[in-house]
Design a protein that fits this description.
about 190 residues, Aminopeptidase, 7 strands
Length: about 190
């Protein structure tokens, strides 16, 4: 089987790319801890993605497979999530008994970003039935080519431990663990500039 083809995701691709990511994260341990109810998840997670990773569309650093079965949203150095908007969505969507832990975890995650310039990968996902078919590898290779062409580091937080071996194959190293209260742990991962 040939590697899936990757292309830039334009603003006109926004709805399809976000839908792909919502599908991909349907069983993500951290996201589903934060948004455990299906209706709650389907309503609020697209908004979380919009404000947490959506600026990738503004910077030409959103990518998708040709068939829309996978997507990755990278934020360039110096660009981060819209923290106020993410907080507003979480205030509205996350159950009150989880909000303290959820906000604490996101604050710790924000503080764990490397001090060197880096591309940040806040969202990458493949439709569940196609995971393990090379889509994630194709998306990572495409995004990391951009990092390497600019000799810039890369950073992500693994919210699902099942994905860590894939990230490690591409040179990411675990640089810590972040957890707050009842949350599942997430693993910050760093790939030095090349």
């Amino acid at each position: 089987m040939s590697a899936p083809s990757v292309t830039g995701a334009l603003l006109s691709d926004y709805d399809r790319a976000i839908a792909t990511l919502v599908t991909a994260f349907i069983s993500d341990p951290f996201i589903r801890w934060m948004l455990p109810d299906a209706k709650q998840y389907l309503h609020y997670f697209p908004q979380v993605l919009k404000y947490f990773a959506g600026r990738a569309f503004d910077h030409g650093s959103a990518y998708r497979s040709e068939d829309y079965k996978a997507a990755a949203l990278w934020l360039p150095p110096g660009v981060g999530p819209d923290e106020e908007a993410v907080a507003a969505v979480m205030q509205d969507g996350v159950a009150s008994e989880l909000q303290g832990d959820a906000f604490a975890l996101l604050e710790r995650a924000g503080a764990s970003h490397p001090s060197v310039p880096h591309w940040y990968l806040p969202a990458i996902g493949v439709e569940p039935m196609l995971q393990g078919e090379g889509y994630g590898s194709a998306l990572l290779a495409h995004g990391l080519d951009v990092c390497d062409n600019g000799h810039v580091a890369a950073y992500l937080e693994a919210t699902n431990s099942a994905n860590i071996p894939l990230y490690q194959r591409f040179g990411f190293e675990i640089v810590g663990e972040i957890q707050a209260g009842s949350s599942p742990p997430i693993k910050p991962m760093f790939r030095a500039a090349r």
